[in-house]
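SAMPLE LOG
Freezer: B-3
Tube label: C17
Construct: single chain, 69 aa
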Amino acid sequence: MTAYPEAADFAADREHMLRTVTEVARRAQRAGRLRPDFVVDDLVLMLMAHRGVQDAPPATRPSAASPPI
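STRUCTURE (predicted):
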């Protein structure tokens, strides 16, 4: 993004993606396939956590990705 700031409108793309994910989540909630208290921030947090696991050394990824017992 910093190398080619004019290559794409990242803010508009992000806004469109968030609107789309929100609509998909609402449909899934109405269909009873997604818990009622889900918010898009839940997905954002999960993606950020996943990115953190991917940045960990390969040997530590399985334990980093597993919930504590």
